[in-house]
Predict the 3D structure of the following.
Amino acid sequence: MCGAEMTTDIAMSAPQAATKPNPNAPTSERVLSVHHYTDRLFKFRITRPQSFRFRSGEFVMIGLPKEDGKPLLRAYSVASPSWDEELEFFSIKVPDGPLTSRLQKIQPGDHVLLGKKPTGTLVLDALTPGKRLYMFSTGTGFAPFASLIRDPETYDRYDEVIVTHTCREVAELKYSQELVETTLEDPLCGEFAKGKLAHFTSCTREDHPNQGRITTLIESGKLFETLGVPPLNPETDRAMICGSQDMIQDTKQLMIDAGLTEGSNAAPAEFVIEKAFAG
Ligand SMILES: Cc1cc2nc3c(=O)[nH]c(=O)nc-3n(C[C@H](O)[C@H](O)[C@H](O)COP(=O)(O)OP(=O)(O)OC[C@H]3O[C@@H](n4cnc5c(N)ncnc54)[C@H](O)[C@@H]3O)c2cc1C
Ligand SMILES: NC(=O)c1ccc[n+]([C@@H]2O[C@H](COP(=O)([O-])OP(=O)(O)OC[C@H]3O[C@@H](n4cnc5c(N)ncnc54)[C@H](OP(=O)(O)O)[C@@H]3O)[C@@H](O)[C@H]2O)c1
């Protein structure tokens, strides 16, 4: 259900609110569900204001009010697709993190602040047309791709959509595994995704059939062998990358080595990048 009636503009400070409401202030959205995967990862869904428009793959500021009433906000990829009436997020729990030490305790019925300006480069419009779309992710970097693999437009634009997810531990892969399965079974998304969507997982610090960093698996060719596809080719392949700064740098270099050029909203090209977290 679209939760427009739950939306409230949050004042930045009381005196300011009395004289001049801030049109950019976040809205207050109701938490609809929360699911914990590990002691480090959880997902949650909130109401979506009717006025909140975004492109699948974008991020937005979300958060909670601080003790003084001012908003404490952090960047979050919207994990749900742009057609969904609710908003989903996939979150880390940083034990002493200013936001997530508190956010991890939210329950249905609580409220979360939602910014009004979604943005980002992991969008279909930032890539030139191609045959095969790769989405390379580590950790919570899977979140923007959780949005894009549920968007029918992704399958309109590409014949093959390959989403990779690498984590330290096997349990950290659960969200992406569950999501790909439900997407393929979904009456709306499944029709588009079946026969086009491939999911490749790997693990770096526990036993798993695909062992190792995604960069190692690209370099060794194991990724392409396992998927049964040819090596990266700028004529046919496009890529989106989301993970830590180091993962992005190393994966980006492999794209450049393969002859792909980095794109942006202003100048679409063959691959795009975005940090899954700062630091
Ligand atoms: C463009 C962008 C999109 C983002 N999207 C998401 C998202 O969809 N889901 C999400 O959980 N976080 C996301 N983040 C990170 C998020 O903004 C916060 O950093 C995170 O919620 C922790 O907030 P905090 O206040 O508890 O701790 P912070 O003070 O923000 O972070 C403390 C430390 O925790 C580590 N850390 C922070 N976030 C992560 C993470 N996601 N994975 C692993 N380690 C992390 C880093 O070492 C960081 O220095 C995104 C960040 C950016 C820049
Ligand atoms: N995940 C956990 O169990 C865990 C537990 C406690 C604390 N933390 C802390 O949380 C922070 C983030 O951890 P995270 O696991 O979410 O993210 P992360 O450290 O970025 O690791 C996620 C995945 O990315 C891989 N990776 C790291 N650097 C890479 C590179 N340059 N190229 C390709 N792949 C790369 C990792 O492989 P490698 O394993 O080979 O690095 C791992 O499989 C870290 O500061 C960590 O110390 C994590």
